[in-house]
Amino acid sequence: MDGKVIVVTGALGALGRVVVDEALALGARIASVDHAPTQVPATADLFELGGVDLTDAAVAKKAINAAAVHFGKLDALINIAGGFAFETVAEGDPKTWQRMHALNVMTALNASRAAIPHLAASGAGRIVNIGAMGALQAGSGMGAYAASKAGVHRLTEALAAELKGKITVNAVLPSIIDTAANRASMPNADFTKWVTPKELADVILFLASDAASAVTGALLPVNGRV
């Protein structure tokens, strides 16, 4: 990853922070994009863009272009920005479906569309999306979230077909990620069977690397320890 310029969206979240740290440790330069505000000064290796609403295509394009200008190029985009809601179909709010679609599908779509010209110029462009195992077969209360992540899966496949030979596009499909928030919401679960952010980051960064040049259109389950 030495010298690669990678945009990470949702970079200030539990998974995003680990991906950023791991990528920096491997020698990459990172444009960190998040909805949360940030006032961290730019360095040679890290450029943080806070307060970015990726559900707005124009805002997403401005942020991606700013990252490209700052570093002079873009080699990879890792779309981690997203959201989760647990709500039954019968008793839930229809607005939840709109919110999940906006947070999970539109953020990835808007960032990807903005990044495509820059990634194509790289010669080794990569897009890595975050899908979900739960979108393969939705359970009770998972309708809105699973439907939106299924949209991410289809977006990944469509982009991979459209950009084949120019940019690779893949998605990782985590099961439950071992985060503080997930432990708090499921205190009786066996945390040892969950996938850790570090394990997931390793797979994501492989797909963003030169070593994954022959992989595109893949929906890769990351199950943890069964």
Largest sheet: 7 strands, parallel
CATH homologous superfamily classification:
NAD(P)-binding Rossmann-like Domain
| Global Rg | 17 Å
Distance between the amino and carboxyl termini: 30 Å
Task: Indicate the structural class.
Answer: alpha/beta
Order of helices and strands: EHEEHEHEHEHHE
Q: What share of the residues does DSSP label as strand, in percent? A: 15-25%
CATH topology: Rossmann fold
The total tally of domains equals 1
Mean pLDDT: 95
CATH architect. name:
3-Layer(aba) Sandwich
Count of extended strands: 7
Characterization of this structure:
The two termini are 30 Å apart. Helix 3 (94-122) packs parallel to helix 4 (143-162). The chain has helices spanning 14-25, 57-71, 94-122, 143-162, 180-185, 197-207; strands at residues 5-9, 29-33, 46-49, 76-79, 125-130, 167-174, 219-222. It has one domain: Rossmann fold, CATH 3.40.50. Strands 3-2-1-4-5-6-7 form a 7-stranded parallel β-sheet, sandwiched between helices. The radius of gyration is 17 Å and the shape is globular. It has 226 residues and is α/β, with parallel strands linked by helices. 44% of the residues are buried. This is Short-chain dehydrogenase. GO terms for molecular function: oxidoreductase activity, acting on the CH-OH group of donors, NAD or NADP as acceptor. It comes from Bradyrhizobium retamae.
